[in-house]
Amino acid sequence: MKIACLRFKRALARITADDGEIPADGAIARHLESCEACARELAWFRSAGHALQKSLTAEQAGAGFTDATWARLSAAGRPRRSPVGVVMAVSAGCTAMIVFALLIRHSPAPTGLPSHDLTPTVSTKRVPNIGGGSLTEKKIPKSPLSGTGIAATHPEKNSSDPPAAIRHRRGVLPRGGRRIARRLRIKTATPLVSAADKHAPEAQPIPWEQIASWYEYQGDYRAAEATYLQAVRADPSEAHLFNAGRTAECAGDVAQAIEFYTHVLKHEHAQESPARQELPSEKETSPWNEHSHSI
Amino acid sequence: MAEMATTQSPVDVTDESLAAAARSGDRQAFDTLVSRYRDIAFAYALTHLNSREEAEDVTQEAFVRALMALNRFRIQASWGAWLMRIVRNLCHDALRRRRVRSSVTLDDRWMDSAPTPELLTLFSERRSELLSAIEAMPEKFRIPLLMHYGARRTNKEIALALGLPESTVIGRIAGALRFLRKRMVDLQ
Lengths: 295, 188
Hints:
heterodimer, A: about 50% helix, B: Arc Repressor Mutant, subunit A
């Protein structure tokens, strides 16, 4: 094989694969005139191409191809969801709503209703004077429960009363009220029961500290602080007072926090004089009370 | 858009205009568009899948998808190239599902029932050897070869179908011929 043959070897098949025409005045044409082997190879390729073209037959798409494609396109253009699916989805939704309503209706009634609604508004209050000394006056922000129909009860004046419970009035829960109630693990949509209802012995009152934790969780440190103070009244412990100080600190009221911490220390040193005794009356210091009182 | 597709000669109307008209319900535009690409799309699918039913299904699905997702089509690109890309993807998906990629025997549908004199002369009645030689080819050679000689598609159409430059397609067909010659000569 000549060197020139190697040069044109690849071009021969390419000529066949293209249009089969050889450039008349090109180097390939001149080489083919002088090289019998390359001319034979080109003839083989041409014959092979011709034979393949005549021998290989591919099936064509069916006659109904266009119509079938049009039908598929028309079907795809319609909403994918079948009417059966829509009906099933709607009926499932309705069933779920009915079941939910029935569950709510037959849920047990909560007990331990407050004697009055203590839903707070922005008010001025005095922090309790625990261990002596006057505390500064401050604003209590509006509780997230306010206006929702959910109200946190405070302990009755009688300190032996159970801790507070959070109630709601059926059908008056505004937007978000049920969600808050659910977060507080309160059964919603239950019939309204009076606080004086004696038929609710299984009441599970929610402790003040739990409510305060909720406020804290929500970032409402002022409300949390006030609620911790309520917890102190219900159960005079340093932990609640310390928490009140902590939430005051979180609220940015450092001076108030220091005061609370001071009271904690004093309370620890004066075990014989419980902080509870030094607390002002609940009516005077309730964070939910709109009236301001001086200690 | 639909008016433009119907008032002009089908040759003058661009694929994009026809596609938009077809999408809006113009059956004539749809027919024109399908007639432009049906054969090449089907040929490509058939060479890959080697099953008429599957090839038809894939081609139809490609048309539907290409028209349904017309709003995602970039106007800078060719609609035909976009369609063929969908065909290629669908073919690959079908092969992946089948998990016997390229292992399907090249059946007799690619061979005429009556061998031509050229074939008889050239391959000396070694028809099965020809088929096995084509089957043994790398896919990059076999697909253009079958589309060119079997489906009678031009190199330009094959280039569109494969998403390659036309010169590359010519080179691959030439490579297929060289492969075939080497195989047949070796067997002699």
